[in-house]
């Protein structure tokens, strides 16, 4: 009979407990047996609490193995012994080694230990989400060895001991693991999928161990099934699941392969004959249901239907979901159906239970929301309705209908003035007055910057003092006047520091900003904010995306006072910082009742007003960050053009109201730029800064081969790690960058904002960065003199 299931749960905890435990562990220095055990015990308590709450909400197959200290792809690398050589001989504990792979490790020598200095592994966006995963790295002769005590097996035993009746182990699939991985520098040129036969042996052993532990079904996540795959990947999927299904059958275990974030299309036929159950995402791709039903109708394949949105925060329209589900029931019957969220609920906040402010101040909005705990309940309600009939949940259905209707008819979601402004946009609004060559001439004259100009991406460290002051101000314990005085003192600190280290283009440091999206959301109509709507972005880094519930417009100038004050403190050019329209949309929980293009046009118009006001205030450089523009790219290539036709113009809409001598910057990170190079060129930013330090310069090759003509700042060092690179290391890196970018177009900067770093490492790294720029300027001067 149909069952209520889940693919994954927010492992960070109801109140980000895991983040706090992990960061306490890091802060303690070299791990001790006591600190390690404290962290492991805290994690075990969290897992038990999460399993319990899912069971209480009615989930009948509870996922285990979805928990991670840092990242599940990193866990998979460790699980199968795919640990790059530079991390193997650190003389560190297993947890030290693990975290070194994720975030780097720099530790001075002691009387008994050698110096440790290793960078973090590469990090990329997980499909089209704002979650970052650690990219597996493989040697051509890579060997795999299953961990002596696999965590997923231990967690299964934990769940059973905690009283969970039907735990379902969750694994990253072997083809996704290899396909999203990369060859090491020493082994470049081979196809990582060639390692599949070796890897499958370890997966087979793991299946055997899980079966021995008592598992009846194993969930294997293969999200690459929703991508446009080459023939080699499709053949790898066929080979992998022929082998895994045979192994599972021998041990009386069923395999459920989970796809999510898109549609299967022809990839369905690579696996459907060698799996027992298949999960499909009917939120992102409801249109695939008919195709999948037709393909599996004559088989015994069980279908897991992802009808509850695992990535957004709106209540499910239960009646609409039931209509969709009845189509599946009529085709294959109840016995072959599982219900689930569309994807892991790790992409969703924990529970609306803690949103007391919204409940009190905006009960209408509160009634529209559903977080992870509530989504589990929605899955259970839909399951009961299918099993026992809609009358069995009639009260819940009626309350749900009222909430859905309330949102549809609310006067708070529509702004006639905003919609009129969108209608009035014309083609000229999307273009600068002059081409880049003419603009650059005007900007060179105005800014008078040296060769290899130095800058940062925007934020400086958000210290404990800043967080405490913001919290006290929000609670009314610090007056507006005293808080503004504090913020001004922090701005002055940032300016004086930049003068001391001799940067060329300054930023004000953003001490007043809690988050690059949430901060601006507070200054725009159409946004709402949660108290506890945290989701993991990478490692222990959590973000609290705002909620776009209505039409968006600017309330008043958003950044003018802070940036004017900063500029008054120095004669160096100041760079204002804004978050671009696509990123404001993508990194929020957006409304789903209007097109994304409409949301971004509204935000673009609001930002345009701010950009024009910044120019009028005398600010010479304005950075509008769009790190999410590549992330928003649809997963299927045939859908790209439709997206790029509105997303890139929305960026231009926000910045094209200024004079030629105002320099427009943008920042992008963790992107495969070769996929959308023409679109990036079409953004027509005067300066683009990009993540580069974790990407082995491969992102830059496309800029060179495509003859990118505007200015570019490839990140010289990784800000996601506390590690401070030496001057010599950065000199080598910049020398390599010069092979791709002409020196008169090259900027020198970190690869992202410095908000998450501490001041000591920030000061050390930026002093080294400036020294590197001066080294290359002196070389250029010597060459010119000669």
UniProtKB/TrEMBL annotation:
EC number(s) from the headed UniProt entry: 2.1.1.14
Domain Cobalamin-independent methionine synthase MetE C-terminal/archaeal: 453-774
GO molecular function: 5-methyltetrahydropteroyltriglutamate-homocysteine S-methyltransferase activity; zinc ion binding
Gene Ontology BP term (one): methylation
UniProt keyword Nucleotide-binding, yes or no: no
Co-factor(s): Zn(2+)
UniProt record similarity statement: Belongs to the vitamin-B12 independent methionine synthase family.
HAMAP family (UniProt xref): Meth_synth
Purpose of the protein: Catalyzes the transfer of a methyl group from 5-methyltetrahydrofolate to homocysteine resulting in methionine formation.
Stated name of the protein: 5-methyltetrahydropteroyltriglutamate--homocysteine S-methyltransferase
Organism (species): Bifiguratus adelaidae
